[in-house]
UniProtKB/TrEMBL annotation, chains A, B:
Residues 43-103 form the Cupin type-2 domain. Residues 119-130 have a biased composition (Basic and acidic residues). SUPFAM superfamilies: RmlC-like cupins (SSF51182). It comes from the Bacteria. This is Cupin. CDD domains: cupin_YdbB-like. Residues 116-139 are annotated as: Disordered. The lineage of its organism: Bacteria, Bacillati, Actinomycetota, Actinomycetes, Kitasatosporales.
Amino acid sequence: MNTEPGNASIPRPIALDRAFASFDALWSPRIVTSVNDYDVRVAKVEGTHVWHVHDDTDEFFLVLGGELHIDLREPAGERRVTLPQGSLFTVPRGIEHRPHAPKGARILLFEPTGTPTVGDRHDEIPDHVDATTGTPIQI
Amino acid sequence: MNTEPGNASIPRPIALDRAFASFDALWSPRIVTSVNDYDVRVAKVEGTHVWHVHDDTDEFFLVLGGELHIDLREPAGERRVTLPQGSLFTVPRGIEHRPHAPKGARILLFEPTGTPTVGDRHDEIPDHVDATTGTPIQI
């Protein structure tokens, strides 16, 4: 949980604009707060992520700016959902998916602390994707 | 999880604008999706909620429109945090708090499914506050 400087026990509000201004890396989520054993992460994204699957957890996406597409490989076949700014979506556990943002997007994620960005199984990780469980934000 | 009409297995994106347009009640959260055993809820708020505490869970607030204040009774004393649009905050478990939005606000909440809006302990509930664990959104 983000806290007042010098006092680890007092949580403080976070302005998303300041959070996004504090980093430039793409596909490299920053942890803005925690809720019990879950993280709230924000990320700047552009281009295509990697096909991956979280076997044991759903993954929540909220698009704060730009437009995000998520390709899904479901039992019924492959489909793409499109999330304009101000849209949200939950990828169910066990569903292989690949986020994609040709023009860039700013997103907020909610998932259990320790969840890797590339899931439990994934295709070869391209250089532009940060395989991480998130980085605490510094603001 | 919100799903395609007629197919309970296919989740679909939710546009926040449509979600907020679907209800008018104040202090009466609507569940827009679920993430494992957590809910994502949205609420329209105006005026003052009730002092209450969640003994066993943190509670996440994201302000999507307007401005929200949260009064907190912490061991060090009472304070108020102010969350302009685009700000987020987590109220730690066990901390008595009271949301307040004199000019109105639209908020998003993350919390475990079944978490009551008035917590585990609370002052007398005013008529304008819906004591609920959330209502599934209908859009």
